[in-house]
Amino acid sequence: MKQEDAVIIAIHLLGKLLGFSSERAWHRFVTRNLFTDRHFLERSRYHRRCRALRFAIKWIRHELAKLGQHHAYAVVDSMPLEWCHTARMYRVKRLQGIADIGLCASKKQWYYGFKLHL
After folding, report:
1. SS3 readout for the chain
2. Which pLDDT belongs to residue 58?
3. What pLDDT is attached to residue 106?
4. Closest Cα partner for 91 from 81, 101, 82?
5. pLDDT band at 1; cut points 50, 70, 90
6. Is the Cβ–Cβ distance between 99 and 76 less than 8 Å?
């Protein structure tokens, strides 16, 4: 099973940001919650790939630590806040001037509501 280097790096950094100290516990969390369809590397292969990408991971962690010192930069993520079900989104009257219909590309579905940016 193949995974791109960017996916391995992102998953490894997420584990460090979430505070997982055990590599085994982090791999168990990833396979049970993020890759539930079992399309992820086995534990030993994942850790070998992390060791091979160690230089890139250290550089990215160093740059992320530098970003924390400057308040001009921030990491922003967004998610949809659904106000009503898809079947009713064309008939809804509440928040008509504020809420709108949008597309959540990651879920590949339409929603009526707001987009939350954190």
Report:
1. CCCCHHHHHHHHHHHHHHCCCCHHHHHHHHHHHHCCCCCCCCHHHHHHHHHHCHHHHHHHHHHHHHHCCCCCCCCCCEEEEEEECHHHCCCCCCCCCCCEEEEECCCCEEEEEEEEEC
2. 84
3. 75
4. 101
5. low
6. no
CA distance 72 to 74: 7
62: Cα separation from own chain's centroid? 20
pLDDT tens-digit map of 15-65: 888 888 888 888 888 888 888 777 788 888 888 888 898 888 888 778 877
Largest CA distance in the chain: 55
Q: What is the pTM of this model?
A: 0.50
- Cα dihedral value 90, 91, 95, 96, nearest 10: 70
Q: Is 95 left (phi over 0), alpha (psi -120 to 50) or beta?
A: left
